[in-house]
Write a structure and sequence with these properties.
Layout: H1 2-7, H2 17-26, H3 37-41, H4 51-62, H5 64-71, H6 75-92, H7 94-97, H8 101-118, H9 127-139, H10 143-155, H11 165-186, H12 192-212, H13 214-218, H14 227-232, H15 237-241, H16 247-263, H17 269-278, H18 295-305
Length: about 300
């Protein structure tokens, strides 16, 4: 894996001494060159030893389902899982928090350099990066997966729809599945069969996330659903922006949801797909926007029964 990581075009493995210079230039700020200091970045440095709590709270606020799932992990892996998910949250919210792609690229570059710093035992003074460094040291996590996530998130900064379902699946594989591969490593699992399952789970999660976010994005005049499926049913992006609920619009959702079922059927994500079927694939139905209050109980029961 290390050789594959070095071979990747977007991965630079320069000498560690350059990072000391970069850290000095940053002055401990999470977003170099953006101005406004920590306030602009939206975080304040926690008290010493508070990085783990910072990560857990960030995940609880921004990735509640991921927060609940992480709570079910063994204690020795839980803190690292929160760090991984906090890293994912940091990257995921870049796209929605910028008005210029250049700013997004700068923030992605910060995280790319931060990962390099982490693997040189010189993490930047940012709570998620600090906790991520501890996770890497604790579990010997594979750098390649971090870089895949950053590279794919960076490519996704362009506000355009996926050309086809395969492009959406590739994005999901390099983000959601890669995150699961790292989570497996925190559990001491490095197995090709486990990775195969994680690949399918990640692709399903990526597709479901795309579907769930459609009303949110449509309200902001953006549509990211695969264009080939939309064209197949004669549906335009404007149809989603206007919140149309005709049969051909629901047929688009049905086809995309069916692709998710190909990868996975019996996990927590299946609950959303099941609820979608109940409203005849009307992605704008109010019931789909509600957070399940019983999800913690359902997850606990599945964990106890070892059924996922």
């Amino acid at each position: 894996m290390a050789a594959a990581a070095v071979a990747r075009g977007g991965l630079r493995v320069g000498p560690c001494h350059r990072l000391a210079r970069a850290a000095g230039a940053r002055g401990g700020l999470p977003w170099p060159g953006l101005g406004g200091g920590r306030a602009a970045a939206g975080w304040s440095r926690p008290a010493p030893g508070g990085e783990a709590q910072y990560c857990a709270e960030l995940v609880r606020k921004r990735d509640y389902e991921g927060f609940l799932c992480s709570l079910l992990l063994p204690a020795e892996s839980r803190t690292s899982a929160f760090a991984l998910r906090a890293f994912n949250v940091e990257l995921a919210q870049i796209k929605d928090s910028i008005t210029q792609k250049t700013i997004g690229l700068m923030r992605m570059q910060f995280w790319r350099e931060a990962v390099e710093d982490i693997y040189c035992d010189n993490p930047p003074h940012q709570p998620v990066a600090t906790e991520l460094w501890r996770a890497v040291k604790r579990h010997n996590l594979t750098k390649m997966w971090f870089m895949k996530i950053i590279d794919e998130r960076e490519k996704n900064l362009d506000d355009r729809a996926y050309r086809n379902i395969q492009e959406l699946e590739t994005y999901a594989e390099n983000t959601q599945s890669a995150l699961l591969y790292l989570t497996l490593e925190t559990l001491g699992v490095r197995d090709i069969h486990a990775d195969h399952a994680a690949s399918h789970i990640g692709k399903t999660q990526g597709i479901v996330t795309c579907l769930r976010a459609t009303p949110y994005h449509s309200a902001r005049q953006k549509v990211f659903l695969p264009m080939d499926i939309c064209m197949l049913h004669g549906v335009s992006q404007e149809d989603f922006i206007r919140g149309k609920q005709e049969k051909n619009v629901r047929d688009v959702i049905y086809d995309i949801a069916s692709q998710a079922h190909i990868h996975l059927e019996h996990v927590a994500l299946d609950d959303y797909l099941y609820n979608m079927r109940k409203v005849d694939f009307n992605i704008f139905h109010p019931s789909l926007q509600k957070k399940s209050t019983l999800l913690p109980l359902h997850l606990y029961i599945r964990s106890w029964k070892k059924t996922y």
